[in-house]
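User: Structure please.
Assistant: Input sequence and predicted structure:
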Amino acid sequence: MLGRKASKFAGLGWWGRRKSEDKLVKAAREWRSTFDSIEWPILMLDIEGRITRLNRAAQMLAGLEFHQLLGRPVEAVASWQPWRKMAEVARVAAETRAGLSCHVSGDRSKEWQVSASFVPGTPPEDDRITVVARDITEVIRLEAELRRSEAMAAMGRLVSGVAHEVRNPLFAFSATVDALEARLGAREEYAQFVTALRGELTRLGRLMRDLLDYGRPSGLELSEADIGDVVASAVRACKPLAKERQVAIHNRVESGLARLRLDQARVAQVVQNLVENALHYSASGAAVEVKGEVISVNNSRWIEIFVVDRGAGFRPEDLPRVFEPFHTRRRGGTGLGLSIVKRIVEAHCGTVRAANAPRGGAIMTFGLPLSEKSPGREGPQPVLGRPSASDSRV
């Protein structure tokens, strides 16, 4: 073949040969640049499974230099996934002279789609195998999140329908207890029964309210607001419970900390639910602290709000079930308060997480994106680059 090229160039003259050589060098350089710009690891193997070409993504995945990989059998590159699967599909493609594709979970918390194609050569000894490994971790995560959102939406519609059906008889029960209280409430032998009925009706009413909140559509009424003012409004709403529990609330979120687009009523509900949850788990004489800060994550600015208590903290066995509807350890709790928090925060493209404080108690944190990343504006939804473990005490 080199002889044919040489004879071809010979007929072009010195200048023609030089131009043709320059064009070949330029084409090779452009091909290499294009090959290296592909974000997925790509290997080209001979029929024996030895590496003949690879792009920069494959080198980075292997953690080796080009000269260290060239000519090496693909199964000898690394023992962790997706390399084992890449070697397997290459071997099958070589044996069957056909392409195949499969999904594998990597050893580094990655999900991969690994495919191999048989490329016939001329002559046959030039047969090649092309192997591609696509990182589909984010795709898998988004699909799982979509399924979870669809399930939560279906559950929301269900519980909302149940709540509407129960409210009418609940009103009738409440009116009946009012009538009994008016007639018998002053008589000592009946007072305890009326009080018990009133308490249970109050509990059912709170459950119906939470069910309706949980089943509300996730549509937001967005406006620009000062996060400090929203937090202050929510803290004021918690004052009666704080007085009843004899627990102080220290609000450290100052007005002017950050302005962002949000649904003021629903974000205030998030803060109120978190603070009330902290109050219920705080001992008399203790304090709940609300703090806030602006942070930068992956070149995006976020506001984070922390609600800190000095209670018993979270039980380890409860951590995997946090934010699940109806999961609660508190007597009289509905198990929906933190589920509602999660739905509202995620509707704002934010994240919520929980942890135990090093010196005891719990820390609930939710983050919301600022500026152009706020909900309702164009552009991709951000993902907070911090832990988003669903850890919560309900």
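The domain at 41-135 is CATH 3.30.450.20 (Beta-Lactamase).
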